[in-house]
Amino acid sequence: MKNKVLIVILIVIFVGILLGIQQMLKTQNTDVAKEREENTMVLDVTSSNFEEEVLKNEKPVLVDFYADWCGPCKMLSPIVEEVAKEIDSVKVCRINIDENEDLAVEYGIMSIPTLIVFKNGEVANQTVGVVGKSDILEMIK
Fold first, then answer.
1. Domain check: are 66 and 32 in the same one?
2. Most buried of the four, 80, 100, 134, 135, by CB within 10 Å?
């Protein structure tokens, strides 16, 4: 009987430790995501500010259509971020297609990641899939 009680106590302690670790990791991941957002040069655009930030912008605008669950999008994101930090003559934005389905439909986004360059409110160039930095720089010329 004592062994059974001891086993139950150990299981409860073990589960408590696991829950504590899970909470610590969740907090750490949230902090990393917040820090990444604060340090980014890429503007998050939504349906409500798309016209102002993209279509009416005097500069060319590179828009990254992505989703949080998309592996290739995660691969492309640091490259887009590099471009945003290095090129001042182009505004760089990203649109989460899960949260802004209307924009994905309007611009015929069938696969992600999709990059679109807008100039004077019009689509000037477009690519689908993971591309290299040199390809992106060529797109925005």
1. no
2. 80
Choose, from 45, 73, 83, 112, the residue flagged as catalytic.
73
Active site residue 73: yes
Catalytic residue among 70, 90, 109, 115: 70
Q: What angle do CA 68, 123, 129 make, to 5 degrees?
A: 40
125: containing domain: 41-139
Task: For residue 85, give every residue at least 6 positions away whose Cβ sits within 8 Å of its Cβ, in sequence order, or none.
Answer: 41
User: 12 and 61: one domain?
Assistant: no
The pLDDT tens digits of the residues spanning 113-123 come to 999 999 999 99
70 is an active site residue: yes
Give tens-digit pLDDT for 52-86: 999 999 999 999 999 999 999 999 999 999 999 99
